[in-house]
Amino acid sequence: MGVTKESLSDIRERYEKAHKKIDEDSRHDPPTEPFRSHYEARDILQSVQRNLKNLSESLNEESDTALTVRCILANVLKDIGKISIFTEELSNGELILKEALELVQKDEEKSQVVNAYVEVLNQLGILYCTRSSFEESKKFLEQAGQVYENAKRDELEALTIYDLFGTKDEIEKGKGMVLLEKNHTLTLYYLAQVYGYLENLEKSAHFCHLTLKRQLDYKDFEHIDWALNAATLSQYYFPRNCLSQARHLLAAASYMLDRYEEEVIANETSAAIKADMVETHSHRSADVARCWAKYAIHILATSKERLSRDDEDEDGKPRPAADLSPNREINRFIGLEALSVYEDQITAEFCLTIDDAKLVMLKGLSWLNKAKEYYTKETEASQYAKIVQDIASLYKHLAFFDDDEDNQCKLYKRCADQLEDLSQVLNATYYQAICREIWYELGLTYSKILDIKLSKLETLAPNERPTPHALNKINKLCEKSIAKFQTFLESYKVPLDTLEIPAAIENAELQAVFFAYFHIGRLYYKIITPDKRLQLANTKNSFRFYHNFVKHCQSNETVGAHFKAEMGVCKEMTKLLPLKIKKLMNELDE
């Protein structure tokens, strides 16, 4: 039986019918039969597969017609394999895809073959990635990349499957090359994911950036997805102090969201679809705003770290200049207009003064307030909590840059107020992890304010006595800080009478638990009271927490290694405090 135009036309008609079921009908499949349309499409494609195999048996394997039939069959098998993977029949999908691969791999230099070959390799890469066989996935994807490079080098005029159904005169010029570029973009996108899973973040970022650039170059993108991917990629760059690159990506993300609003939403005529678009835009604008805020927080936190540390490393050698400066290299997107308007909202340099820091802090605050409009405490409590925690951290970081102690206290107070309000909103049973973070941070914040207040007392003249109000403030801060740290410990079921560490607490969390012991020991020692009995009780509590801090650090060397400086202080205090306790007891007995 020969291959006629009518037979190919019939195959094309059924092929298109199967794809209509996948692309359109499947959207309406009932929840009880989520794969119904895909199964129907597979049945159609399998009947096409049988026809093609029958046709190929009557042909000379070396003829162009036989090659065309093989290519169409490879495409059909590839689609059947995709359906098998989608319907969670992975082993079957693998067998079918490898059968498709065998049909095309010996003819990769042919125009008819190249797109099918790349698509099959991409699908195998996805399959092995799904199975967490990332090295195997990478091999198929890299092979797909090489097939593309070879086709470009040899100037092949790639064809689509629809070109294969017609005569040479019926080929739609250029469509095959557009498809080849799209397929290669997908290869790069999948490589970005695989390298991410392999924890090679540098290569993952490289391929992600390439994907974004190619999507722009070939105008093959969805605004929302592109913006989210750009914003997510920025989160790789700014922790590495590539501030200009991170800012550029965030600016591009914001630009793309604005284009979506002005060019896509504005032109939608269906009220229902438009409402969905507006909701999606609001959601993703909030996400990008949070990414901008993370960038601002990083600038403040790293600026603080740079200003705090010595210009020498641990070995006493001068730090290289690059270690103290932001990386200003930037790989810009071509074709996006007016990004400078978005980039100029915030610096790509570290802060040196309070004025620099205020600008960064206020921009970060505006982005977080925008995010709070979407992520409300009523609808998205956990995300709302993360946003409020970020707002609190902005106030905390800004306090470092202010030399005025009263202003510092006000900023720390604003930080504490944000966290206190949040702790009232969250149910500690359902949001235990977040509540622990809040209690711990509140303990640290009240301790910071305490240190500032104590520092002011030290500046009093020798004959000047602190006011009762000042002393009461100090004691209140001690009590608040102790209470927060104790609530934190109690959430881990640490008994406050014995301070024994429950075995269930993992090492990753023990560091904060040990630190809470250290802080509480210090805080009890800072309470000021003329009452000897209270002095004795506070000193005993201080000793208990210091002693247990030392004991637990010594029994768990892995965690204890993080507290070399604190261990020195605590060991010294565990020697001095028993003497003070004895002295107070003697004074009370007199």
The total of beta strands comes to: 0
Structural class: mainly alpha
What overall form do the CA principal axes indicate? Answer: elongated
Main β sheet profile: none
- Tell me the strand percentage band: under 5%
Number of helices: 22
Low-confidence sequence ranges:
none
Helix content: over 70%
Average pLDDT, all residues:
92
Measured on Cα atoms, how large is the radius of gyration? 33 Å
- The N- and C-terminal alpha carbons lie at a distance of 118 Å
The arrangement of helices and strands along the chain is HHHHHHHHHHHHHHHHHHHHHH
Q: Any overview of this molecule?
A:
The chain is mainly alpha-helical and 590 residues long. Among the domains are: 235-311 and 319-374, no CATH class; 383-491, no CATH class; 495-590. Helix content is 73%, strand content 0%. It has helices spanning 5-23, 36-57, 64-86, 90-104, 114-130, 134-153, 161-164, 175-197, 201-217, 223-237, 243-264, 271-308, 339-343, 354-374, 381-401, 405-425, 432-458, 468-491, 507-526, 532-555, 557-560, 564-589. Helix 8 packs antiparallel against helix 9 (201-217), helix 9 (201-217) runs antiparallel to helix 10 and helix 11 runs antiparallel to helix 12 (271-308). The longest helix has 38 residues, at 271-308. It starts with a helix and ends with a helix.
